[in-house]
Amino acid sequence: MSANTIELPSPEYHLGDFFQWSLPKEKLPETLTPIGLELFPRIHWKNREQSEGEWHWGHLAGFTFDEKMDLLEKAPHTILFHWQNFFDREGTGEWSKFFDHSLPILPQISLFPDKLVLRHVGKRLDRWPCGPWPSSPLFASSVPSLPSVLEEKLNPSYDGWKSKWSLLAKEFETQSLDKVVLSRKKIRSFRAPLDTRSLWKSKEFFQKDNYHISIEADAQTSFHSFTPECLFKLEGRLCQTEALAGSMGRGRKDDDLLKNLKELEEHEIVIEGIVEDMEHLSEGHHFGDIQVIQLGYIQHLKTPLSFTLKENVSPLDLCRILHPTPALGGRPKKKALEFIQNHGGFDPGLYGAPIGRLEKDVQEYAVGIRSALLTENEMHIFAGAGITATSNADSEWRETEEKMRPFS
Q: Does residue 106 lie in a domain region?
């Protein structure tokens, strides 16, 4: 290894002009890093089972969707990332930056807890150029605090929330809707540019039941989700999903949530919606026991669900069918989504959207809640509440405040 390069071993996989190398982490230089970590998108992923997360940089273009899926089957350590806008359309405004690449994303560089994987299209390489370690949360010795807030706006305002509530009440009276998720966001403007590492100071995010997902579209624009919700995990024909709905602030007993009729009603609507959506894709299902999961700031009702899929059901098929479950959309699904689209008031983008990590044997999608969009000087913080005919506007507003609290 020369001063500014890593000597590459024989490729662990190559096909045509595609090459992939895997290097054990203990053999990496301590003061240098492979050139490429300045690339975008930058993705961090940690699921609920991982004790350490993994990092991915860049996107190898020039592959068709089928070629990427073929690499997933044949090349070891190949990871693809896939996400979509909540409404499965191109994002508007800052969200458009997350859809500049053809999805799914094939990273150029992947750093796992035990190895570095490099991918290249072109001539075979013997060495990979290196540079100084970048300034990122992975390598930071100290994490900065958020700058002071200059201004805070609400979308909708509390009065706007009550107005939407009145519209929903009419829908519930006619029984055209069983449930709708009403969402809102805070937009905080800061006195100085934001450093994404500032979010890492909150211990609320690092709960064992949370995913930790960060997607940096460019140097000023990033999305961060510390979500407790799995859309599905697919291993072979076994699809594991969950109903995560029905919430209450911490400080109450588990029994308080398990005996709350409004929260139980909302939870049952989500179970029924998932089973209905999965009916034509599966050959059987199993329900786990309802449980209360405790996060640092809120608690939720959760029921694990598993389905045996029919042959040839792809993860993208599941994504299209399951998203959004009634936990993020409502029921009936079409009618609820029409209400959200007509009265939501903002483009949700990746908030509440499916974000997936695909490898050969396991494909897993999380739901992008407990999330924020960061731009150069702004943070857009999102939260929603499941509304049924027995809901109370004030208590649901307070619930969204609890869900936003970790970003405060």
A: yes
